[in-house]
Amino acid sequence: MIFEILVLGSGDACSFGGKNQTSFFIKTDKKTFLLDCGPSTLSELRRRNINTDKIDFILNTHMHGDHYGGIPYLLLDLNINYKIESFLVIGAEGIAERLNILQDLLYPGYGFEKFKFKMIFEELKPYQEINVDDIKIKSYPMLHSAYSYCFGYKIEYKNKSFAYTGDTGWTNEIINLSNNTDLFIIECSYYNKDIRNSHVSYKELLENINKINTKNILLTHLSKDAYDNIDKISHAIAYDGMKIFI
Ligand SMILES: [Zn+2]
Questions:
Q1: What is the greatest pairwise CA distance in the chain?
Q2: Average pLDDT score over the chain
Q3: Four-way CATH pick for 3-245: 3.30.750.24, 3.60.15.10, 3.30.870.10, 3.40.1110.10
Q4: Is the pTM of this model over 0.90?
Q5: How far, in Å, is the centroid of ligand 1 from the Cα of 38?
Q6: I need a labelling partner for 62 at 20 to 30 A (CA). Which of 37, 72, 153, 158 fits?
Q7: For residue 158, how far is its CA from the centre of ligand 1 (angstroms)?
């Protein structure tokens, strides 16, 4: 069975540590998809010789630039360089409208209606489950932005699963999201800064560590504050190019 994650981007919005903005390339036996697509995603795919027409869909956690700002370039590449019939983007309510506006802002007059392929959107509500082929995806509402839903996702394939928080402040939903997973990827923007309702600190994670129910914890999205204290962080930290077999 193939169920793999290639970390394309493990950095925060400001790319501290010289890391790309958020993106994970997920591969199963039959499907591949991106979990988030920050602005540096397409260049990292090119470096790794992964053509965009080999990506079946994008799953987006939330509409902040470092998590979805790379989608227009990926779509542009698909339109110019490949022949596909349709492309699926899954995200929170409003993503179809917001992405169309973003595409037109970056390339005026070159919105989705000009594409040679059809754009398909699945807009999710909190706790919604969908299946793409035999991949099961469930959205969990996180605590991050007042302007749109921010989701963490639990992703199951065959008898294995992983979850990813996206961006979030500390909430009990983090504990629910982690439940019974083989791998839990959690944002850890800060070491000890009090950024409630927005991002997680390593101190908060340690305070709640006994409630997290997963086989492996992987930290991502570290900011300057976390890097300044990196010698005090004892959990695994994602890096660009990291490959994980679930
Ligand atoms: Zn964010």
A1: 52
A2: 96
A3: 3.60.15.10
A4: yes
A5: 11
A6: 158
A7: 30
Stretch 129-148: mean pLDDT: 94
Q: Which pLDDT band, with edges at 50, 70 and 90, does 57 fall under?
A: very high
Amino acid sitting at position 13: A
Mean pLDDT in residue range 175-202: 92
- How big, in percent rounded to 5, are the helix, strand and coil portions of the chain? 25, 30, 40
- pLDDT higher than threshold 90 for residue 156: yes
Instruction: Give distance in angstroms: CA of 159 to centre of ligand 1.
Output: 30
Instruction: Give me ligand 1 centre to Cα 83, in Å.
Output: 32
Contact 154, 184 (CB under 8 A): no
Q: How far is the CA of 221 from the centre of ligand 1 (A)?
A: 10
Three-class DSSP category at 98:
helix
**Structure-block tokens of residue 128:** 């919604």
CA distances from 111 to 28, 53, 103, 204 (A): 31, 19, 6, 42
Ligand 1 center to 13 CA (angstroms)? 8
Quick: pLDDT tens for 213-224.
999 999 999 999
Tokens of 138: 């469930």
